[in-house]
Design a protein that fits this description.
CATH superfamily of the largest domain: Regulatory protein AraC
Strand order of the largest sheet: 1-9-3-6-10
CATH architecture of the largest domain: Sandwich
Shape: elongated
Order of helices and strands: HEEEEEEEEHEHEHHHHHHHHHH
Radius of gyration: 22 Å
CATH class of the largest domain: Mainly Beta
Helix content: 40-55%
Largest sheet: 5 strands, antiparallel
Structural class: alpha+beta
């Protein structure tokens, strides 16, 4: 089975870091500055308020909060609290008197971040909003997200050998589930998430990801989607904003960028591996995509 979303995660080298699961006793407030990392939080007990972009959002147990571009935000028990910088909260955890450790009522949070390569930008990430709030009441009924959170909590609360690796994998599963839910909800409008939810277009996308080094053309992709050539081209462009062959070229360049940064293959060999017979044509296409030559990309990786 083709899996375009996993292809993208593999390309960008998605990694997670989980800071903690801990109690925040009222009154409390924590401000997370823009860090460049995709920040995430999960509410595992109680309620809280997140303030970001000038708006307040009520959060309850089971909610998952994601800031794909690391937008600044504040978490607190009530709106308007004086918030302590997150770095100070983290530093206090190494002391005998962690912040927000006393009080009758408390909220329990899992906090962490995701890292991924920023030199290989895929259109999917350009579409993501600054803040994603998945409410537990609106999650799919199969409860996969809540099950992942339960497993994550179990490892954090009862750590054993290898728990850090297990926690990181669960956190990566969590973001994949969040993206899957976003795709399933994208029933109207346009964008890359909608293509993941479109069975026919997703099949064609999977073939592009799988056979990008082959001489596939619009006829091949239309046949994969079981659509006419013109119908497929129109549907793909209306959904993603780019023509199918334009996306195929972009995917080839993303693969080339990865090979240049992570291997010692010559530029000629990289060109061949992504479907180009001419080094010159490859270098031109690469510079159009990245604004620099293949050699410059490798030097800066």
């Amino acid at each position: 089975m083709d899996d375009p979303l996993s292809d993208i995660f593999h390309l960008i080298r998605l990694k997670s870091a989980v800071y903690f699961e801990r109690n925040f006793h009222a009154p409390w407030g924590m401000h997370i500055a823009g860090t460049g990392f995709a920040q995430f939080h999960a509410v595992t007990r109680g309620n809280c308020v997140v303030e970001t972009g000038g708006r307040e959002h009520e959060c309850s147990v089971g909610d998952v909060l994601l800031f794909p571009r690391g937008a600044p935000h504040t978490l607190s028990d009530l709106p308007g609290r004086n918030a302590v910088p997150g770095s100070e909260v983290m530093a206090s955890l190494a002391t005998d008197d962690p912040m927000f450790s006393n009080g009758e009522t408390y909220t329990r949070l899992i906090c962490g971040h995701y890292e991924f390569r920023s030199d290989l930008r895929h259109p999917m990430f350009d579409e993501l909003p600054e803040f994603i709030h998945l409410r537990s009441l609106n999650l799919p009924r199969d409860e996969r997200v809540s099950s992942t959170l339960a497993l994550l909590m179990g490892e954090l609360n009862q750590p054993a050998a290898g728990f850090r690796s297990i926690v990181e994998r669960y956190a990566e599963i969590l973001i994949a589930q969040v993206f899957r839910i976003l795709a399933a909800r994208e029933v109207e409008g346009s964008g890359f998430f909608k293509i993941l939810a479109d069975e026919r277009l997703s099949r064609a996308l999977g073939r592009m990801h799988r056979e990008y080094a082959e001489a596939i053309n619009l006829d091949d992709l239309a046949a994969e989607a079981a659509l006419s050539k013109s119908g497929f081209a129109l549907r793909f462009k209306e959904t993603t904003g780019v023509a199918p062959i334009e996306y195929l070229s972009k995917w080839r360049m993303l693969q080339a960028g990865d090979l240049l940064a992570s291997t010692n293959l010559s530029v000629a060999n990289v060109a061949e591996k992504v479907g180009y017979q001419s080094d010159i044509a490859f270098a031109r296409a690469f510079k159009r995509e990245f604004g620099k030559t293949p050699s410059q990309h490798r030097a800066g990786a």
